[in-house]
Specification:
Length: about 575
């Protein structure tokens, strides 16, 4: 349908008292054709990442109609599965963003009106708690209203299935078919939230379920008591998201005595006033944490994103300066600590397994193999990383850890998504353990480089928004496939993996990976959730200086090559 027909349809069908009608009329008065086209040229697409987009009127925006259409489609999909699936129910959570609570309540009302059992939380909760609760309550599905780490203008809709993972491609395709069949003006059924609670169709979960989630996290401890220096000074920020209460409780439960939560970022704030872009992967998000860290002499700074699934840290170097670690580096520390600790405790299984994404550094593979643990690779996303767990079970492996470079870590097969709370617990524990040994996390990271080689990482991206941006990203990928380099910064390209049609047991994805003769490599792929093309550069050298010099040269050459595409 032409975008002009779409917005005319909305203009005709929206009631005058609907705020979306008011917003639409203001757009008409502004005569901004480009903005109209951006909002109505397509439907906000539902896939394995659910929905994500800017809040506002339009088919390509997050609003009550797009949320209602997605939820009604999922309800229809569950109803087709039969009465047992309907009675198992759906768990719904939300983050602190604009309209998150309202969208989650509306989703609950739609599901309940379709005679599907619903569980909700009394307020915002971390994404990983939702993932945990799906398996604990044996629910058929889960929905989280969140845009993760995106800016304040965005919201989103994550869909989960009964395995506790975000929906697989197969389930997403089935849901999409049902969603596409929904007429937003006639088919969406909803009712009154409180009435459904009284009828028992909606259950608001009590605090005992929060305790069960924390108990699971705290059971993942490797060391405790006298092995740890629990006076280690720590600063934590939830970046105005869901993490404040559970993270604080976890640190208290573990016995940490000297931690500070950044007060300006402790409570929910949908505008993220003091941080702007609430992504802990971006060092700028640590500005206030660094100020408090210096004030209190903190040795470790930790942050989670607004829905508390992403986790990042800054540590002190030998000069006392805070240095941000990327997701790979934090992964090295966790892989090393888990394997070292379990070997010392005698709990390292005979067939241990870890899982990482295809765009995550190979250094963690070298660490794992040195302990006799096999590292498996999957596509990006924890629906793939945690989705590998059933295969591991079937083949006699014990799951130990899964992670990807975009600051996501899954420490338990009972929480089948990335979890910033459990990752924070284990990093704090590791820091406290090494402090007791007279070492810092900075010392340990350097020890890893000395043992396994100096590995450097660079993960730039090019943001290209809107229709024109999406089309340019497509041209960039097409150009690169048709003009693969033979050498990169003086090293020969020895192998190319194109995942567009799948590779071995890895399903298709629009991604390329090139390996070089000096043991460096890089990958390129469009983001599945944001308007950007992403690059992953990895170098290895006999010294830090050598690895740094090559990664700069490799990055400059490849970015210059691809930016030449108009």
């Amino acid at each position: 349908m032409d975008y002009t027909k779409r917005y005319n349809e909305w203009l005709q069908n929206l009631k005058d008292e609907n705020p979306l009608k008011t917003e639409l009329l203001s757009l008409i008065e502004a005569h901004d054709e480009k903005e109209f086209k951006e909002r109505f040229y397509k439907d906000l697409s539902f896939g394995t990442a659910g929905l994500r987009g800017k809040i506002g009127v339009g088919t390509n925006r997050m609003n009550f109609l797009t949320v209602g259409k997605a939820t009604q489609g999922i309800a229809d999909y569950i109803v087709k599965k039969g009465k047992e699936a309907m009675e198992k129910g759906v768990i719904i959570a939300h983050d602190p963003r604009h309209f998150s609570k309202e969208f989650s309540r509306y989703a609950a009302e739609i599901l309940a009106e379709n005679h599907i059992k619903v569980y909700t939380f009394p307020d915002l909760r971390p994404t990983p708690e939702l993932a945990f609760m799906i398996r604990k309550l044996n629910a058929v599905s889960g929905i989280n209203i969140t845009a993760s780490h995106n800016p304040k203008e965005y919201n989103g809709y994550k869909a989960y299935w009964e395995d506790g993972c975000q929906v697989s491609s197969e389930v997403a395709d089935g849901m999409t078919e049902c969603i596409n069949a929904v007429n937003i003006w006639t088919d969406i059924k909803s009712g009154d939230f409180d009435s459904f609670v009284n009828k028992g169709l909606i259950t608001v979960l009590s605090e005992e379920y929060d305790r069960a989630y924390l108990d699971k996290i705290e059971s993942l401890a490797i060391r405790s008591g006298e092995d740890l220096d629990l006076d280690i000074p720590i600063v934590y920020t939830p970046l105005n998201g869901c993490g404040s209460i559970p993270f604080r409780q976890m640190l208290k439960d573990r016995g940490f005595k000297n931690f500070t939560i950044v007060p300006e970022q402790e409570n929910p704030d949908p505008d993220f006033t003091t941080v702007g872009y609430p992504n802990p992967e971006d060092p700028k998000a640590f500005k206030l944490s660094e100020e408090y860290g210096k004030k209190f002499g903190a040795e470790l700074l930790m942050a989670t994103d607004p829905d508390s699934d992403r986790f990042a840290i800054e540590i002190r170097d030998d000069n006392g300066n805070y240095i941000p670690l990327n997701g790979n580096q934090t992964g090295y520390l966790l892989v090393n600590y888990i394997l070292e600790g379990r070997k010392t405790a005698g709990t390292l299984p005979k067939k241990g397994a870890m899982v990482k994404s295809i765009v995550t550094s190979n250094l963690s593979t070298r660490i794992a193999e040195s302990y006799g643990v096999e590292m498996f690779e999957t596509l990006t996303g924890f629906k793939n990383i945690c989705g590998k767990i059933p295969y591991l079970h079937e083949n006699g492996y014990t799951y130990l850890f899964g992670y990807e470079e975009s600051v996501g870590y899954a420490l338990s097969e009972d929480i089948r998504d990335k979890d910033g709370i459990s990752a924070g617990m284990l990093v704090a524990e590791a820091a406290a353990f090494y402090k007791k040994q007279g070492k810092t996390l900075f010392d340990v990271l350097n020890d890893i480089y000395e043992k396994y080689g100096f590995h450097m990482e660079n993960e730039p991206n090019i943001v290209l928004e809107g229709i024109e941006g999406s089309e340019r990203i497509g041209r960039m990928m097409k150009f690169f496939r048709e003009n693969l380099p033979v050498t990169v910064a003086g090293a020969n390209v020895t192998r190319v993996i194109d995942y567009i049609n799948g590779y071995k047991d890895i399903p298709p994805q629009n991604a390329l990976r090139l390996f070089l003769s000096n043991d460096s490599w890089f990958a390129i792929r469009p983001s599945g959730t944001e308007p950007k093309i992403k690059f992953y550069f990895y170098s290895r050298g006999d010294s830090k200086k050598e690895a740094e010099a090559y990664i700069r040269a490799m990055t400059d050459e490849i970015l210059g090559y691809i930016k030449s595409v108009d």
